[in-house]
Amino acid sequence: MTSSRADTQEPSVHIMATDHAVRARSSALSCIIGQDIVILPDVLGKYCVRELTARVDDLVVLAGVVAFADRAVQRKAASAWSRALHLTLPVHDRAFWERPESVTALTQTLDALTGDKWSFAFRPRTKQTPVNPQATLALSGQQCTVIPFSDGLDSLAVARLTQHDDPDTALLLVTTGTHRCVAPDARVRRVTIPFTIPSKRVRFPETSYRSRAFVFGVMAGIAAHLVGAHRIIVPESGQSSLGPWLLPVGNEAADIRTHPLFTARLANFLSAALVTPIRFDHPQLWKTKGETLGEMYQLGLHDQWWMTRSCPRRRHVSIDGRSVQCGVCAACLLRRQSLHAAGLDESKDRYFWADLNAPTLAQAAPSRARLTTQNDARHAWCGTLELAHLAEYVCDDHYRFSRATAELADALGISKAIVCHNLTRLLAAHAKEWKGFLAPLAHESFLLRWQRALKC
Q1: What distances in angstroms separate CA 168 from CA 14, 163, 187, 277, 280, one per listed residue?
Q2: pLDDT at 178 over 70
C-alpha cells in the first residue's frame, strides 16, 4: 500500500474508490463504496425531500473517500508529517471536477487542513447513491443557521447564544449522532453525518484525522445549500481556533481545523461546487472559552451544560464501567479553566484525574482505579504545556507575530491592525484565566509543579 525509497520519505499512496469490488493495481489501496464507506439512506434522506442532485451526491462520496484515505494511511510522524495522497474516485459531474479551478480549490483546501499533498483523478460514475427522502429539513419560510455541532461546551453555548440573539432563526445542527438537547425547542433540528467507515477490511492506523473538519464542513455546506441558510457558524472560541495554529506541536503541520484559514478556503470550494454563496462565521473568535461560557451563564442559558463532553480520550478512561472525561488533556484543562473563569460549578462534571491538588498524577485518580500509564502522563504533560505556552505567547517577537496577524487578516478580510489588537487582547485574557485557574491549587499540586518546571 505504501511505497518509499527511504524510511524518511513521506508515504505516497494511491487510493482507488469504486462502486464495486474490482482488482486494483498492486500499489493501490481500494476503497469500496458500500463496504469501506457505507452511506446510510435514512440519514442522508434527512438532508433532502427529493433525490440528490449529481453534485451533492459527488460531494458526499468525496467527503467519505477523503476521510477513509486520511485514516488508512499512517504518517511517519517521527521523520515527516506530510503524506502524498492520490485519490481516484467516481463522480457524476466529471466535467466540473476536472476543471483546473475545481481541482485547485479542492487540493488547496485539503493541503492546508491536513498538511499533506493531495491529488485527484476522476472516473465516470453510473450508480446513484441510495437515499430515502424525508422532510426533516422542511423549514420553509424560516431563516436558518447551520452549526457543525460537536456536543461540546462551545457548541452548546454558541447555539444557545444564537437562539437568544436571533429568536426567529431556526438552528440546524450537523452532528455525529449523539442526541443531546440544546434546548427543548421545535426550531432546533439535527442531522448526522450520513456515512460510516467500518474497519472490517482495512486498518485505520492514523489517529490525527484532520479531515474530520472537512467532512463536517462539507455536510454543513450541503445542509445550508438545501435549506437556503444564510450562514454556517463555527462555534469554537479563540483558544481552540487559534491556539493550535499559533503553537504547533513538534513537526506537526499547524492545526487549522476551526481556523478561518481553513474555513475561507472551504467556503470558496463549496460555493463553486454548490453554486450557492456559502459563508462561515466565527462569532467567538476573539473571546476565550471562559468569556463565551460567562456570557451564557449571565444570560441564564447554562442549564445542563454538564451534559456536554470535551475530552478526546473518553474511550480510554472510565469509572464504575462508565466513560468519563480524563480531566488533564489539553481539551479537559481548557474546559476546567473556562468553567472556573465563567463561575460555573465544576463539581457537576466527572473526570478520571479529578483532583488537581494531588501531588502526583496517579494520586489524582480515584482509589482502586486502573494504573496511570506513561501515555496518560504524556497526554497530561502535553495538555499543561499547550495551555501554559499559549499563556506565555510573546507578542513582541515581531516577525512571528506580524506574519501570523497578516495571515489571519487575509483570511478574515479585515485590517492587520484590527487583528493585532484583537489577538493581543485574546492572548492576555487567556493568560489571566490560566493564572486564575492555577491560583487556588495547593503548592505541591502536580499541575503547579509542572508549571514551575516549565519556567525553569
Answers
A1: 48, 8, 9, 22, 20
A2: no
Q: Which three cell numbers stand for residue 43?
A: 440519514
Q: Which three cell numbers stand for residue 223?
A: 445542509
**Structure confidence by residue, pLDDT tens digits, 68-86:** 999 999 998 778 899 999 9
CA–CA separation, 247 vs 393, rounded Å?
Answer: 9
Q: Label the pairing between strands 143-148 and 117-124.
A: unpaired
The rounded distance, in Å, linking the Cα atoms of 20 and 391 is 52
**Cα(1)–Cα(333) distance, rounded to whole angstroms?**
39
User: For the segment 267-282, what is each residue's pLDDT rounded down to a tens digit?
Assistant: 999 999 999 999 999 9
